[in-house]
Design goal:
heterodimer; A: about 250 residues; mainly alpha; 9 helices; about 75% helix; globular; B: about 80 residues; 2 helices; about 0% strand; rod-shaped
Chain lengths: ~250, ~80
C-alpha cells in the first residue's frame, strides 16, 4: 500500500503510466461520447413536454456532472497536498482546473440555451444556476491564484486551501433543486432510484457521461504530463526524454 | 430514427437553432481545449530542447576556451 502510494507520488512513474493509458482513454471516450450523442440526437424519442429541445440534455448533464465531479477530485487532491505534501496531487489540481472551468461554462451555456425555449428565459437567479456560476468563479479563482504565486510550495498550499474552502459549494449545487423549488428540474440520475425517463433516453445519456469522463481522463493525463515536464525539467529523465524527441 | 427526414432532423420542430448551437459550442470548446493542451505540450518540449542544446553548445565553447590545466577554475556540479 505504502509502496504504491510512493510510486503514485513519483512523477516519472506517472508519466509512463499516463503514456500507456492515454490512447485507450481517448479512443474509448470519443467512441462512447459519439455513440451517446448520435443516439440522443437522432434516435431517442421526443420528450412529450419539451419536444426536441430536451436533446440538449445529452451534453448539458455530462458537462454539469463532470464539472462537479472534477471539483470533488480536485478537493481530494488538495487534501492530499496539504496532508502528505504529495507533489503529484498539486500537479493534478493545477492541470485540471482549466478543464473544469470549460466544463462548467459549457453546463451554464447549454443550460441557458435550453432555458430559452423551455422556461422562456436565458437566465434566472435560480439556486442551481447561481451555485453553478459560483463554481465557475471558483475555478477561475484556482487558476488565477495558482498562476499568481511563483513559489511552487506556497502556491500548492494556497491553491489547496482555496479548493477545500470552495468544496462547500458542491452540496449546495447538488441539493439546490430539492431545497429551493425553483425553475430547474430535479436530478435525472439518482443513486437510489431508477431513472424516471425511458431507457431509450437514459442509456444514451449514460453513454455520453461515461465518454466525457474518459475524455476528461485523457485531458488530465496530457496536461499533467506537460506540467511535470515543466517542473522536472532539471532532472535527468526529463532531459533524456526531451532530447530523445519522443512524445 | 426519431425524425422522418434530414430537414426535420435539422429543424427539430423549431428547436433546431437551440439544439445545434449547444452541440456546436460543445464541440468547439472541447476541440479548442484539445488543441490548446497539445500545443502547450509541444511548446514546452521544444523550448526545453532549445535550452538543452544551447547549454551543451555553451558548455563546449567554455571548455575550449578554458586553459588545459588550472588550479582555480574547478567546476563542481551543484545538482
Amino acid at each position: 500500500m505504502w509502496q504504491l502510494f510512493h510510486k503514485l507520488g513519483s512523477p516519472k512513474w506517472f508519466f509512463g503510466i499516463a503514456n500507456r493509458l492515454m490512447p485507450w482513454l481517448l479512443l474509448g471516450g470519443v467512441a462512447l461520447l459519439f455513440a451517446g450523442l448520435i443516439w440522443g440526437l437522432a434516435f431517442a424519442p421526443q420528450d412529450y413536454l419539451q419536444g426536441n429541445s430536451y436533446r440538449i440534455i445529452f451534453i448539458h448533464v455530462p458537462s454539469a456532472f463532470l464539472a462537479q465531479s472534477v471539483y470533488i477530485m480536485m478537493a481530494v487532491a488538495a487534501a492530499v497536498t496539504l496532508v502528505w505534501r504529495m507533489k503529484l496531487a498539486d500537479v493534478f489540481v493545477k492541470s485540471v482546473a482549466p478543464v473544469g472551468a470549460v466544463l462548467t461554462f459549457l453546463a451554464l451555456f447549454t443550460g441557458a440555451v435550453w432555458g430559452k425555449p423551455t422556461w422562456g428565459t436565458w437566465w434566472i437567479w435560480d439556486a442551481r444556476l447561481t451555485s453553478m456560476l459560483i463554481l465557475l468563479f471558483l475555478y477561475f479563482g484556482v487558476i488565477a491564484l495558482g498562476a499568481a504565486i511563483s513559489d511552487e510550495k506556497s502556491s500548492a498550499r494556497a491553491v489547496a486551501v482555496l479548493v477545500l474552502v470552495g468544496v462547500v459549494n458542491i452540496p449546495i449545487i447538488k441539493y439546490s433543486v430539492e431545497w429551493w423549488n425553483t425553475l430547474h428540474q430535479p436530478a435525472t440520475f439518482k443513486l437510489t432510484e431508477k431513472p424516471s425517463m425511458p431507457a431509450e433516453m437514459w442509456v444514451p445519456l449514460l453513454l455520453s457521461v461515461l465518454g466525457l469522463y474518459l475524455i476528461f481522463g485523457w485531458f488530465a493525463c496530457l496536461r499533467m504530463q506537460t506540467e511535470i515536464l515543466i517542473r522536472e525539467r532539471r532532472t535527468r529523465w526529463v532531459k533524456e526524454l526531451v532530447l530523445a524527441g519522443r512524445s | 430514427m426519431a425524425f422522418d427526414s434530414l430537414a426535420a432532423f435539422i429543424a427539430m420542430e423549431g428547436h433546431g437553432p437551440y439544439v445545434w448551437t449547444c452541440y456546436g459550442v460543445f464541440v468547439l470548446l472541447l476541440g479548442g481545449l484539445v488543441y490548446w493542451s497539445l500545443r502547450q505540450r509541444r511548446q514546452v518540449i521544444a523550448a526545453q530542447r532549445r535550452e538543452l542544446s544551447r547549454a551543451t553548445a555553451s558548455g563546449m565553447a567554455a571548455s575550449q576556451n578554458a586553459p588545459a590545466a588550472s588550479f582555480t577554475r574547478v567546476k563542481v556540479s551543484q545538482d
